[in-house]
């Protein structure tokens, strides 16, 4: 066991982090050999998204819908109302969301990207743009699908993995105002992703949210939150922002929701469920347009593509996620893993964020250029070494293919080690840390990849790749 400790506020706590729950149901982890994993990765065309679940020992690809639900959530599912129109489970969820966020119109969807699709279909057009701290991949794709332009305006510190700025998810307020002035009517809305997933899971401060909201409203633009990880952002505000430590996470969350005109949410994150999304709006005309599209693509406004049992589980999950014992454990676990890697000199996105630890893959493999996908190389090596699946967040996901040469690189080359909620224990964390240290010790010999097949939209999910071999036909130099 690695000897360490972690900080929580001003208190130094022992290395053992106690999960604030006990395990009632277990699921066997698949065990594979190195030779088997080499075969599975080759069959997956070297894209971790194409690996089968039964071939993965620890899955850190995403925290979306991969967490464990509580006994209370499972109990709620048994009493879910499956009425096709007018489900009582919807009205229970609606009441919970309205109380938590203050939003007037609650529109369920089957997952977050559906909420995004509906929102941008009624707000974006061919000559419009969306201003954000940082768009995530599906968010950007939905903006662009309707012909809009997604513009990222995150602060400069966010692009420096070594910076210890406590709120690297913040939007650059000067740039925001400059774009609002210059682009005028072309701006469809201002969007804030909390926490900032593409930028290392970094939080946005309440002060920054308040100022961005004020600017958006001054220029007559809706201010929308991508609130998939709202509870984690609220907890990090409580821990890091001066003047907020005495407030509860629920109070902080309510404060930033009240600054907004609505939100999209993948409920598969801080909703603590395996499926579901939400679109919240305060504008009655927008809400009416959204509901009309919902009926066309998802179902009636009282179920939105979900079963009544899913709505019931989500209502409970939105309450449980604000349990401060849970949030303390959740964030401390990420900090603990971050510290384990940091003490071995592994290049990271600093400081630790909310739902994941992000490896600086470009610094990990400085000899692999962005167009040879150092993040993918690291993700694949992690799987080969220990059966652990992670996800590249770099040029494969966010780069732009160029007909004149190599891809236009992403701002950062990251690998995200994303922890499902209430799923893995401290021993799993320490196992992953051991694998990462082993990879770091032999980092000089790893080669990059080239794409053999790709889609025009969200290529990272389906791309096929091959290793760039040496003259001897080996991945190793």
What labels describe this entry?
single chain; Aspartate Aminotransferase, domain 1; Aspartate Aminotransferase, domain 2; 7-stranded mixed sheet; 3-stranded antiparallel sheet; disordered C terminus
Description:
With 477 residues, this protein is of the alpha/beta class. It is 38% helix and 15% strand. It contains 16 helices and 18 strands. A seven-stranded mixed β-sheet has the order 4-10-9-8-7-5-6, with helices on both faces. It has a three-stranded antiparallel β-sheet with strand order 11-16-13. Strands 1-2 form a two-stranded antiparallel ribbon.
- CATH fold name of the largest domain, please? Aspartate Aminotransferase, domain 2
Mean pLDDT, all residues: 92
Instruction: Label the structural class.
Output: alpha/beta
Number of domains: 2
Q: What ranges have pLDDT less than 50 throughout 5 or more consecutive residues?
A: 471-477
CATH superfamily of the largest domain: Type I PLP-dependent aspartate aminotransferase-like (Major domain)
First-to-last CA distance = 33 Å
Major β-sheet annotation = 7 strands, mixed
Q: What global shape is seen?
A: globular
Tell me the number of helical segments per DSSP (H or I, 4 or more residues long): 16
Proportion of residues in β-strands:
15-25%
Briefly, what CATH class of the largest domain? Alpha Beta
CA radius of gyration: 22 Å
Fraction of residues in H or I helices = 25-40%
CATH architecture of the largest domain, by name, is 3-Layer(aba) Sandwich
Instruction: Report the count of strand segments.
Output: 18
- Give the strand order of the largest sheet, numbering strands 1, 2, ... along the chain: 4-10-9-8-7-5-6
